Amino acid sequence: MPTRRQRRVSELIHRELSKLLMLEARDPRLAGVTITGVTVTPDLLLARIHFAVLGDQMAKKEALVGLERASGFLRSELAGRLRLRAVPELVFMEDRSAEYGRRIDELLEQLREDSISDDGDAT
């Protein structure tokens, strides 16, 4: 259970990183990146940044490489914008929740089709 301070720091990092990626990132690999969530460790020294990218698997890999290359720039910019003793180290992780949800929808649709075809055979 995150503390109130962890939640506040996560929200600040989320907001500022989103602005930085929209307005100041020059790398074309970061054009379609959306920050979906930030979790901070209890000691506030590590921030896990969850991101999503539209596109195929190659676009996602390129975005991850771009984010990792830009992490020093992003961290230094955060240091200037946030009032924290130490800016957390940024670790980027692909957010797979959309893919997971899409897979569940596909499975539910298959179940519906199977039950309809089973009902049609019985009559």
Describe the secondary-structure layout:
Elements: H1 4-23, E1 33-40, E2 46-53, H2 57-81, E3 89-94, H3 97-122
Parallel strand pairs: 2-3
Antiparallel strand pairs: 1-2
Helix pairs in contact: 1-2
Describe the structure.
19% of the residues are buried. The protein has helices at 4-23, 57-81, 97-122, and strands spanning 33-40, 46-53, 89-94. With 123 residues, the chain is α+β, with helices and mostly antiparallel strands. It has one domain (4-95): K homology (KH) domain (GMP Synthetase, Chain A, domain 3). The mean pLDDT is 89. Strands 1-2-3 form a 3-stranded mixed sheet. It has 3 helices and 3 strands, in the order H-E-E-H-E-H.
Features:
3 strands, GMP Synthetase, Chain A, domain 3, 58% helix, elongated, 3 helices, 123 residues, 3-stranded mixed β-sheet, alpha+beta, single chain
- The third-level CATH topology is GMP Synthetase, Chain A, domain 3
Distance between the termini: 53 Å
**Domain module tally:** 1
Q: What is the helical fraction, as a range of percent?
A: 55-70%
Largest sheet: 3 strands, mixed
Discrete helix count:
3
Q: What CATH architecture label applies?
A: 2-Layer Sandwich
User: How many DSSP-defined strands?
Assistant: 3
Nearest-integer average pLDDT: 89
- Proportion of residues in extended strands: 15-25%
Rounded Rg: 20 Å
**Inertia-based shape:** elongated
Low-confidence stretches: none
Instruction: Determine and state the CATH class.
Output: Alpha Beta
> Which strand order do you get reading across the main beta sheet?
1-2-3
Query: SS-based structural class?
Result: alpha+beta
H-E order:
HEEHEH
CATH homologous superfamily identity:
K homology (KH) domain
